[in-house]
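Worked example 3 (structure in, sequence out).
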């Protein structure tokens, strides 16, 4: 998986982390191939990542690919947000690692009584997708805010369930020329 991804983490001018997704691999003017996105996300199943802020371990379970590509939230997405979510799949490990501002919520739906017995956590994360000119050169990046939805299972493990609430940060786009000055963080 790692060799197929062109992803890095940088800090913006305010010192906040952004996952830079440097390739748009899911393209489409009218519609995206969500089956291809689901297949891509499936390659993460069985992996786990640590959130730097609170040292929580987040697992990738077998339910993530279907939920990521076929959730009610995903089906309601339109325009640039659709392409943003599809391509954000490339940065899932880093989006987990830079997640911040944890909020807990008790389980409210009976359908999740089995897989989220201990409730839900939501974390903030950010990612950027390249903007291409007519010659397929990167001319800048659009920055997006998103929330990671984490389910807390009866076993005590926490699993990424979906990426929600994706919003373009209109005041936070960056030019390609400015990127070399940003240093990746470890």
């Amino acid at each position: 998986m790692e060799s197929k991804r062109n992803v890095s983490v940088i800090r913006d001018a305010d010192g906040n982390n952004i996952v830079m997704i440097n390739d748009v691999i899911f393209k489409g003017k009218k519609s995206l191939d969500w089956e291809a996105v689901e297949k891509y996300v499936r390659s993460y199943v069985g992996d786990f990542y640590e959130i730097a802020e609170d040292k929580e371990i987040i697992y990738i379970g077998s339910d993530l690919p279907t939920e990521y590509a076929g959730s009610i939230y995903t089906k309601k997405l339109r325009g640039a947000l659709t392409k943003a979510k599809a391509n954000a799949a490339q940065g899932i490990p880093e989006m987990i690692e830079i997640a911040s501002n944890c909020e807990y919520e008790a389980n409210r739906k009976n359908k999740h009584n089995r897989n989220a017995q201990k409730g839900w956590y939501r974390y903030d994360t950010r990612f950027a997708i390249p903007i291409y000119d007519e010659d397929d050169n990167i001319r800048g990046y659009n920055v997006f805010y998103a929330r990671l939805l984490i389910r807390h299972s009866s076993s005590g493990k926490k699993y990424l369930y979906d990426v929600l609430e994706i919003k373009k940060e209109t005041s936070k786009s960056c030019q390609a020329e400015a990127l070399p000055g940003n240093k990746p963080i470890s």
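Notes: The chain has one domain: 2-175. Residues 34-42 form the longest helix (9 residues).
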